[in-house]
Structures are given as C-alpha cells and as structure tokens.
Write a structure and sequence with these properties.
CATH class of the largest domain: Alpha Beta
Strand content: 15-25%
Number of domains: 2
Low-confidence stretches: none
Oligomer: single chain
Distance between the termini: 67 Å
Number of helices: 19
Mean pLDDT: 94
Number of strands: 25
CATH topology of the largest domain: Nucleotidyltransferase, domain 5
Shape: globular
Structural class: alpha+beta
Length: 501
Amino acid sequence: MAFLGVDIGTGGCKATVCDEKGRQYGSAYVEYPTIRRHGYHELDSQEVWNSIRTVIRRAVEASQGQKVEAICASSLGEAAVPVDEHRNILGNAMVYTDCRGQNEVQDICGAVGKLRVGEITGVNPNRIFTINKVLWLKRHQPELYHKTYKFLQFEDFLTYMLTGETYVSYSLASRTMAFDVVKKCWSEEILDAAGVPSDKFSIPCSTGTIVGTVLPDVARELGLPDGVKVVVGAQDQVCAAVGAGILEDGMAVDGMGSTHCITPVFDRPVITEFAINAGYCCCPYAIDGMYATYAYNFSGGNLIRWFRDTFAQYEYEKCRQNGANVYQYLDAKTDREPNDLLVLPHFTGGGPPYMDDDSRGILYGMTLNTTLPQIYRAFMEGVSFEMKHNLDALAQMGVPIRKLRACGGGANSKIWLQIQSDIFGLPIEKLRNSEAGTLGCAIFCGTALGAFENLRQGASVYLDVGEVYEPNPDYQAYYEEKYDKFRRLYTAGQLIRDVRV
C-alpha cells in the first residue's frame, strides 16, 4: 500500500511516495517564482498546477512497483486561485505578502469590530488573509470575481483539479479570516460584512476525510492507477507538526526554515484579546478538538542566508568553488563560547508578539576586535532570543511548551540547536527526516484507508528522532542576563525610529 504526499509551498512544490511501513520511494521537487510588481506578489496558478503535475509524475515514475492508493496535500495558506465550474484556472493567486487588501480588512473590521473578528476567526485581522484579497478583487476586478465559481487555496485547489470536488480542511479555512474556528463553519457575520457568499469557498471538513477519487483522465496523465482516493490535507505547518509526531498538549515542532516557526498544539481553543493582538492564531488541528498556533519570525533562516550573502560573501564563494557547505564551514569556525553581541532579528519587521511591520533589525556591540564567527553566532542567538520571547508569551497565554522537535534547514546546524536549547531551557530533539510535510500527508492517507488505527500509530511508523540537545546549565545565568538586554533592543529601536530628522 503506497501513499502520495504533495507539499505546495510559496517557492516550489514537492511530491513523495511512501508505504505503510515507513519506507520512502520516489520524490521530486520543482521550483517556481513569485511574480512581484508594484507591491503585487502573485503565484502563476497555471505554472503551479503544471509543477504539481510534474512532481507527481516524477515521484510515481521513480516508485515503480508501488501502487499509489491515496493522495493528500499540504499547502501554504491565504493565497487563493480563482477557478470556473469546469476546472479552468481564471487567474493568479495573491500570496500573503501582497499589498492589496488593506482597505478591505479595515472595512470588515469597521463593520464587525476588530476584536470580534479575532474572536470568531482566531486570527489577528490583517490584509494577508484570503477574504480581504477576494473582496479586493470584487471591487477592482469585478468581471473576474463574478466569473469565478470558487476561490480555492492550494490544498483544495489540488483536490478540485484531481476530483472536481471542492472541500477544504479546517486549518486552511482558518487562513481566510472568514471561518469560525470554534463552530467549524463559515462565518456569515464576516461574509455578510464583506458581501461575499460562502459558496464562493469550498466545503470545510476534517483533515483526513476521503472526498473522492482521481478522475480517470487525470489519473492517466499523472501515471496513477484507477481509483486513487483523495484525502483532505492541511496547512503546511499542521502537516509538518503531524509528521514530527506533535500530537499532544505541551509539544511543538521547531521549524527552522526560511521563516522560523514554532507550532505548538493544545487541547482547547485559546482565543484571548492578548493572543489576537499579539498575532497568535488559533487554528483547528489535524485531530478534532485540538488546536495549534504559530510563533514565527520571518527573518529566521532568511537572515542567516542574508549573512551568508553579505558578511560571509568571500567564504561563501570559496566554499562554492571547493564544493563545500558554507554553513558547515561557518559552524566549524564559530566559537563555542557566547559573546556580548546582540541582534534584533527584525530585518523583515517584527512578528508575534510585537506585530510591528515597521520594526527594523539591529546589530549591537561591535568593536574593532569583533570577528566574523562572532557575528554569525550573534545572528543565531538573536533569532533564538526572538523565539524565546514567543515561548514566554505562549506560556503567558496558558500554552506552555515542554518538548520541541526540530526540522528544516537550520536544524542541520548542531551549534544552532545547542544555542536554542541553552536559551529556551528546553530539550530539543532533531528529526533525521526533513520531509515532515509530505510524511504528514502520508500519515493522513494511511489513517484514512485503515492502514493505521490513528494518527499516533501512523506517526510512530515515520518518526525518526536523532540527536537530543539538552540545556547547558553553565550558560543559564549568562543567557538570562543577555535575554533581558535583548528585550530592551526593541524599545531602543522604537526610540530611534520615533526621532524625526
């Protein structure tokens, strides 16, 4: 019995074939660009669909002898593809960074109330969410809006293109800012304020629901056998958390990717004024009755990459010429002892709990004796302090975290994992497998088809925990003092920003 997981991201998509024993077979990845012009940030919906078809075909071809019986998707949130009733794509998909929707979110909050919107949807109202993009299209591209049968996020877009059915997971529905996360239905109060009917969106349902089979002509094109079941997936962070075995209160996945994101799960909805204003969403999880939230820093791995391309440009070029990994080189050169440099990692603004788009990055404490490896370590510490601030805020909300499992590109750095453990004061388990998103999809497929009794059993089949990093007590007092200084950097940045030249 084989399952096909598809992970649809902002910069590319991946497909992986796995069986019920945890073995992985074919895998394929294709990149695609984000179209940026005049503040508009879009994905070419047709190109994304072509890329999805390509990775599915390649993964299936590389898995000869394995009969795929189910397919499931993990996807980015917020972006929505306009389609007609015949599965034709009508336009591009605005991604979360697109500038449109600011007036629309203000209008919806003006009609419903900002706090009320947050209480219903579990999110801090923002232009990034789908309903504001759809309302913008209704106002500025009315012909496209009225031609559109459904606005689909990429998870339910794949379901529609494979089956002709429109179902969306509760977790993806919650990224529209039009979904009642407690009642698990579209909010008529918000949709009425927007003037957008609920039938412009898919039918919400639980992750793991079987909603149809792949259409025969589509199956032939993709190299799939007849009768492949299509299973409702989830938002990418939820899929990754399930793939990491995050299935009970107090656990979280530490996603050390381009955006550093910690995703904890809890056993009841946590929607408070503090959580809403601080930007901590309350998202239905893959297990009915459980919820998740996202503590994130957009800089994260992007900041380390920027350091590579600027401060360490010479080292990067030398490593490229020698076929070496520049991050491994920098890790080896980095002092194991902390230093007094401080970094506020707001190079793309401040995420939770600040929610301050105008905040900017700070590197403080430089002297003529400062070395490149010291700056590199300071950048890793800065991101870690930022996430420590988030962990403290989550604990204040009643969502304490006792165990972290790390995945993503940053988790390949032993020194960064140790820095995090020391700063967080928590053990961190490193996952050997980086395919947590597509593995989460395989777990959903196997559970839906009865290969696993539940998600817990499925996760145990795929879970592969490697090294465990424990906090070093010798650094505890030092990092507590440095964390206190770090917290003051944001205030200092505000004071500088408020000075009018």
